[in-house]
Specification:
Strand content of chain A: over 45%
Mean pLDDT of chain A: 93
Distance between the termini of chain A: 37 Å
Shape of chain B: globular
Number of strands of chain A: 11
Shape of chain A: globular
Mean pLDDT of chain B: 95
Number of strands of chain B: 11
Largest interface: A-B, 20 and 20 residues
Low-confidence stretches of chain A: none
Order of helices and strands of chain B: EEEEEEEEEEE
Oligomer: heterodimer
Helix content of chain A: under 10%
Order of helices and strands of chain A: EEEEEEEEEEE
Structural class of chain A: mainly beta
Number of helices of chain A: 0
Number of helices of chain B: 0
Radius of gyration of chain B: 13 Å
Chain lengths: ~110, ~110
């Protein structure tokens, strides 16, 4: 089982739609969680950290469910410019203190 | 600030050749790392450094060497290129090595080994 699993998509949604992605992680020692955004053939960039209480940044909402070991990203009122791949990233304490990246979920927002 | 810069952007090597991928950052970040990204796989950590003079292995270190003689620079050396090293390589830096801080990535180097 992969340490971090994401549905690769693509998710094709019309502009203005609400879309949600989930990401599951296998290591219960996971400590910190992030969503990164990666545009085609570009470098990843931090979209938002995910806090235990959930957090919101404009149209983006991130949630953490430790009991079920998943994080989610909700995008409201999708824009064409939201088209990208969204990477789920988990930090695991112990065993090297490293970041583990999911393979990403591709979002395509269409007119 | 230029952020994290990487050179070259593209490179084609023949099997057995060696080369160095350059990475530099001007943000005075202590932590720097190298990742490779392959289709269907997440970014995988090759080597990392928590400060000048200190380096350590990541998840996939075989075939690569690194050094960190200054805070700014963190070159990645391919010792004897193999087709399995065809990938996109990203260098990243962050303020500290606790990994709770934003990772700033360079634009990447696309390497093809024939």
């Amino acid at each position: 089982r992969k340490e971090v699993e994401q549905d690769p998509g693509p998710f094709n949604v019309p502009e203005g739609a609400t879309v949600a992605f989930n990401c599951t992680y296998s290591n219960s020692a996971s400590q910190s969680f992030f969503w990164y955004r990666q545009d085609c053939r570009k470098e990843p960039k931090l979209l938002m950290s995910v806090y235990s209480s959930g957090n919101e940044d404009g149209r983006f909402t991130a949630q953490l469910n430790r009991a079920s070991q998943y994080i989610s990203l909700l995008i409201r009122d999708s824009k064409l410019s939201d088209s990208a791949t969204y990477l789920c990233v988990v930090r695991v304490t112990g065993g090297g203190n490293k970041l583990t990246f999911g393979t990403g979920t591709q979002l395509k927002v269409e007119l | 600030n230029a952020g994290v810069t990487q050179t070259p952007k593209f490179q084609v090597l023949k099997t057995g050749q060696s080369m160095t991928l350059q990475c530099a950052q001007d943000m005075n970040h202590e932590y720097m790392s190298w990742y490779r990204q392959d289709p269907g796989m997440g970014l995988r950590l090759i080597h990392y450094s928590v400060g000048a003079g200190i380096t350590d292995q990541g998840e996939v270190p075989n075939g690569y060497n690194v050094s960190r003689s200054t805070t700014e620079d963190f070159p990645l050396r391919l010792l004897s290129a193999a087709p399995s090293q065809t990938s996109v390589y990203f260098c990243a830096s962050s303020i500290q090595g606790t990994l709770d801080y934003e990772q700033y990535f360079g634009p990447g180097t696309r390497l093809t080994v024939t």
